Structure prediction request, 426 residues.
Amino acid sequence: MSGEEYNHNVDEWADSAYRFARRCCSDDDRCKDAVQDAFANLWEHRKEVSTSKGKQWLLSVVHNNLMSQYRHDRVSEKIHAKQSLVSVVEPDLTFDIHDAIRSALQLLPPIQRECIQLRDVEGYHYKEIAEILNISDQQVQVYIFRARVALQKLLNEYRK
Amino acid sequence: MITIDNYELYFFQYQEGMLDPETRREVESFAQLHPSLSEELSLYAQAPFIEPEEIPYPDKDKLKHKIVPLYYWLFAVASVVLLATSVFIYFFSPHFVPQSSRVIAENNSIQSHSISAKTLCANESTSITGLSIASNQLRAKEARPANDVIADSRIEESVADSISVAESHQELPEVMPSSIDQESLCIAENELLEYLSEPDSLIIVDSVTTIFHDYSDVTLADFIIDKAIERYPLEVSKIALFACRLVNLSNRIINNRFVSIVLSNI
Prediction:
């Protein structure tokens, strides 16, 4: 990947990487840092990465970055997500499905969030998701299954 | 075979239509056997898809790198190489002598007069004439203020005395001619012509001496003096001073004809 192609990748994939990070992590600064690190990493390894694999590389680095941070503060992340669900949903008595989904997503384990995000939003195939997250494609399928079931359970609870 | 440990994968593939009919039937019978798990099948089917959301990254420009085109680098490298080559040629050329080095050489020449005179004194085999001429020249040089005409005339008298002594003693041997290097000759001549354009005749004498000192060749010095006389006929007496200096500087033989030229012009 040349320097020009790298800059083209920034234009093309910075939003996707940021969106992916934001879906997986509620801390905006942390998401920006993860994206910045991912692009710094891509620049460093630009000679090894082909242009077509640029996005996968970025998402993979963002994932690794967020996961390592998640392991450090797993507990506080969960509490924060619960609080945000309450703060988003409770004051507004009208049911907003998008807000509810967003909040429910925050309660899922990060790996499930990432799988569902990469599948639904980024439109990756299971095998590509497996490459990005460095897991098997069967694991990806199981995580997506668990995520959808958990999401639907949370929404049903909220409706009650 | 579907078990409690792997049912999620089968359920997922069932819902996504990835299974063949036989396996689908297996999944359905497994779900009937486990009603609590079969609920998950329906929950999966009801679950909403996550819709794409526009979340633009705020500072894309900060992520970009400035790309310098390759020809800029080539141009920069070529410029540096050219500059380095020019500097090398200028400073390491075999004919390059910095101005500061010239000044140092002249100063060294004055110092060498003293050393040479002392050497002459110490050496018993040195002729009285050489000693006399050298001493006179040395005194003249050290006593002369800049652009002092009276001092210059004294120098000439002193030199004339020295040469007279030399003539009376008949101690000046013949010059042993040596071959003249054409390139050195050409350079020396050019330098001499340059110096001859100077208004102060003593500067000429100094310069001629320096040239001799630099090239250390009596025959060449002989030639240079010829040129000096040709260009500067009125200053022959000062060229005589140069002749004295030759003795002083080199302690080598001097041509008799210098003496005769000098004597006929003083």
Summary: Confidence is low (pLDDT under 50) at residues 109-136, 138-146, 169-180, 249-254 of chain B.
